[in-house]
Design a protein that fits this description.
Blueprint (H helix, E strand, L loop, with lengths): L3 H23 L8 H16 L6 H29 L11 H23 L4 E5 L6 H18 L8 H19 L4 E8 L2 E8 L2
Antiparallel strand pairs: 1-2, 2-3
Helix pairs in contact: 1-2, 1-3, 1-4, 3-4, 3-5
Length: 203
């Protein structure tokens, strides 16, 4: 029986494959929508949506990102299927047909990626006032940062757990001194494929 991490890795692969096969379908490269992959994804998403309490923090963060990505793609596919059924997609015949359909598929694939990016990645937020006394919050922030980096395929570099803790402690203290604030909100988000860690002044 696969572990949760293995199932999440499989879910990520299936979502990528679903997009590829839908683009092939809309481009004329396959006769039917990839229903089998879609059913497999739906099964995993439903199972972990109902059993979210069994997931560790990083697993839940990863699952939420994957399920949101799937929801974005699903909406794009639904609209394109509706257009196809309504006859809004032109049909081409003759020698140029394949080239025209391939170009359309490429443009629609780019539109799918752009639509998913615009909807925005899930952001993780945590507020700190004394990081040295809020180990749980700093740990959650670190785990969210690592998970987002893994999702984006970015290396952690020299940012170890201890270095991260020191960064948060120092950054919080600096902002409290400079901005005369009590709390600092840290936000982990992925923008255009790049993971960003922001520190925002709170009251």
């Amino acid at each position: 029986m696969p572990t949760i991490d293995e199932e999440l890795a499989g879910l990520e692969r299936d979502i990528r494959q679903l997009k590829i096969e839908y683009d092939m379908y809309f481009g004329g490269g396959r006769k039917r929508p990839p229903s089998e992959i879609e059913w497999r994804i739906e099964t995993v998403v439903k199972r972990y949506s109902e059993r979210g309490g069994e997931l560790k923090y990083t697993q839940r963060f990863r699952f939420n990102n994957l399920s949101q990505t799937y929801a974005k793609y699903k909406e794009v596919f639904r609209k394109r299927l509706a257009q196809r059924e309504e006859g809004k997609i032109e049909r081409h015949f003759g020698a140029a047909a394949k080239a025209i359909e391939a170009e359309r598929a490429r443009k629609q694939a780019e539109a799918s990626d752009e639509a998913a990016a615009k909807v925005g990645a899930k952001a993780f937020r945590v507020t700190c006032s004394a990081p040295e006394k809020e180990a749980d919050k700093v740990e959650q922030l670190y785990e969210a940062f690592v998970s987002a980096k893994q999702e984006a395929g970015e290396a952690m570099g020299k940012m170890t757990r201890s270095a991260f803790n020191e960064f948060v402690r120092k950054k919080t203290k600096d902002l409290q001194t400079q901005k005369n604030c009590r709390e600092v909100e840290y936000v982990v988000e992925t923008v255009d494929g790049q993971v960003k860690l922001k520190a925002l002044v709170k009251s």
